[in-house]
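User: Just a sanity check before I run the rest of the batch. Below are the structure tokens for the first item. I only need the designed sequence back.
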């Protein structure tokens, strides 16, 4: 029976044999196109600040009380450069839709045909096609800091973004 040292040496030799050398195909990149979201509503800094306080359970009553005084005044405000909301085209299955790519979230969820009709109104939504696979007993849910949430079922489908395709990508379909 081989000793521990011999086992480690055999394992190391085996790992060297199975190590795959990646091929150097040069640099790889892709581009994600962004378009201005026509439904984006610019909000005042005061509104955004009060909303942020409320979102995290902080008292914002002083801001509300001050706003209720309806004091008049003026100030020159210059919007931040490129202060817009952007959407990017993504193809799921055979459907292309514009989505907000939220880099602060690990969830890839979309409105879906599984939602009640009144909740789909005004949204482009994903309809799982014949090539999509529903993952039985897989569900998802996400709750945001402002108390809103989404939940649903998980499908595997082909997804293309910026010319890069991923086969059998998990897609969280809101229900």
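Assistant: Here's the designed sequence for the first item:
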């Amino acid at each position: 029976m081989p000793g521990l040292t011999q086992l480690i040496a055999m394992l190391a030799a085996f790992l060297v044999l199975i190590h795959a050398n990646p091929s150097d195909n040069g640099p790889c990149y892709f581009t994600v196109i962004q378009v201005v979201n026509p439904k984006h509503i610019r909000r005042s800094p005061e509104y955004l600040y009060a909303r942020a306080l409320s979102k995290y359970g902080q008292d914002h009553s002083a801001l509300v009380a001050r706003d209720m005084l309806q004091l008049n005044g003026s100030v020159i405000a210059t919007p931040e450069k490129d202060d817009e909301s952007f959407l990017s085209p993504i193809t799921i299955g055979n459907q292309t839709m514009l989505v907000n790519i939220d880099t602060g979230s690990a969830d890839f969820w979309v409105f879906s045909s599984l939602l009640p009709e009144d909740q789909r109104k005004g949204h482009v939504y994903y309809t799982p096609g014949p090539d999509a696979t529903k993952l039985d007993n897989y569900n998802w849910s996400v709750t945001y800091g402002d108390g809103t949430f989404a939940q649903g079922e998980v499908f595997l489908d082909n997804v293309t973004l910026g010319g890069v395709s991923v086969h059998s990508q998990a897609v969280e379909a809101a229900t």
